[in-house]
Design goal:
159 residues, four-stranded antiparallel sheet, 14% helix
Length: 159
């Protein structure tokens, strides 16, 4: 069965993120969570907090494409220092592939941002040890401040 995603769908994805308490939403293309390849559209708003994390499984690379808006990808070392920052948008870098074991997080820089994430499945929730220990968990005190810091952090910065 063909799966066609229209510009109207993108608008709905963006609205879903605006309406969501976490200020982001997912639209899965894969049929089940145990699918061998996870393919999903992720819509985000600037107030979402995408906590830095890694995928420690040796097969868990992550390919991310920004189709509308802008996300900035931050790469961190084991102590939480920013080692790389990359703008992802239709005007800058469209896609990036992140190798397994890499600490990374995204800062949503523009309302209405829509990206496509592809990674090897099956879906397994991120274990606690794969969330960056130097960051607050979503909803905890300090999470909003860290999210705001991520929007302007540069290579060499550590919060």
């Amino acid at each position: 069965m063909l799966k066609i995603i229209s510009n109207q769908d993108f608008e709905q994805f963006s609205q879903n993120a605006k309406d969501a308490p976490r200020q982001r939403s997912h639209h899965n293309l894969h049929e089940t969570l145990d699918a061998g390849v996870q393919r999903l559209f992720i819509s985000t708003e600037p107030d979402t907090y995408m906590r830095p994390h890694r995928h420690s499984e040796s097969h868990k690379w992550e390919l991310f494409l920004v189709l509308k808006g802008q996300l900035d990808l931050l790469i961190f070392d084991d102590e939480g220092t920013v080692t790389e920052r990359h703008s992802l948008s239709p005007e800058t870098n469209r896609a990036i592939e992140i190798p397994p074991g890499t600490w990374h997080g995204y800062a949503c820089m523009q309302s209405g941002t829509v990206g496509l994430e592809i990674k090897q499945g099956a879906y397994v929730p991120t274990p606690a040890e794969d969330f960056a220990p130097w960051t607050a968990a979503e909803g905890e005190s300090g999470a909003d401040e860290y999210r705001d810091w991520m929007r302007s952090a540069q290579v060499g910065d550590k919060n």
